[in-house]
Design goal:
The protein has 119 residues and is mostly beta strands. The chain is built from no helices and eleven strands. It starts with a strand and ends with a strand.
Length: 119
């Protein structure tokens, strides 16, 4: 059974930085894409950034230029470097992994890690 475990969340002041990490266990295959989503209270879960196995990245407009996603496809890990954080970035951040090894995509989610940015 595949498990995604996030780490690196916490409390930081506005303008500060945090680095989130996500590692998969129990997988005998490589994911086609891994990414980060976030959900603030009262809001829907939204895409933050994603990276494909080929290294292509995509970011939400709100984090472009401030966040950087990186991954190791061989190890099934993904990191998110978050700089210039604002209170608007406060949310629970979730790691997601996708595999297209079968006809239907398989999605896996981590349990989430809290990021709180104080003003």
């Amino acid at each position: 059974q595949v498990h995604l475990v996030e780490s690196g969340g916490g409390l930081v002041q506005a303008g500060g930085s945090l680095r989130l990490s996500c590692a998969a266990s129990g997988s005998t295959f490589r994911f086609n894409a891994m990414g980060w989503y976030r959900q603030a209270p009262g809001n829907q879960r939204e895409l933050v950034a994603v990276i494909t196995s080929g290294g292509t990245t995509n970011y939400a407009d709100s984090v472009k230029g401030r966040f950087t996603i990186s991954g190791d496809n061989a190890k099934n890990t993904v990191d998110l470097q978050m700089n210039s954080l604002t209170p608007g970035d406060t949310a629970v951040y979730y790691c997601k992994a996708v595999s297209y090894r079968f006809s239907r995509p398989e999605e896996y989610w981590g349990q989430g890690t809290q990021v709180t940015v104080s003003s």
